[in-house]
Write a structure and sequence with these properties.
mainly alpha; two-stranded antiparallel sheet; elongated; binds zinc ion
Amino acid sequence: MAFVVDRERRPAGIRPSSVVDGVYDNIYHRLMALEIAPGARIPIDVLARDLNVSQTPVREALSRLEREGLVRKEHLIGYSAAPQWTRKQFEDLYIFRLLIEPEAARLAAVNMNPASLLLVEAAAADMEHGETPVDRNTRYSRFARADAHFHDVILKIAGNEVIRSTLSNQHVHLHIFRLMFHTRVTQEALEEHENLLAAFRAGDPEAARQAMTIHIERSRDRLLSAFE
Ligand SMILES: [Zn+2]
């Protein structure tokens, strides 16, 4: 693993929080790459030894990942990777997304101004750059983060904090990312985003609502193959 920072040998000026960040990134990547399988135990002492750090930053990183829904902590058992979604959980979530996100896209189109349009365009462009060929894991990981960011920018512009926080508590994109390992990342999602952008540029709330509905329905259909 690339991350090796010993507490004592840490260069002067680097605060312990950056050690936690490094440990966090390392575990995050292992979870995303399914090197730590869904449901697998995550022993703190083994990880600490592996990363050449004390147990404290490992505990801190794990509790951050727990808040993000990627790991679970059970009394007397300890930490484990969050289980893979069941098909039922997946379908429930997509029904929920279909209720909420098209309305958020409509609201975003109503609120759109030149400055916020630039933010959405930039978020969409980030995803296109994720297409540059690197290894599969890195590409998927970037794609998932960039997609999460794109959707969150739209939710921010929509300006309804109840919608935004409720969706963000579902950690949709992190779970989707792990499913994506069994499917394909396609050009289709980028084209669907492009349709959303066109609606935002045109200032057309109804077209934005429809574009988001189609995007989520197609995303659901693409990911469903992970359960077959
Ligand atoms: Zn998307």
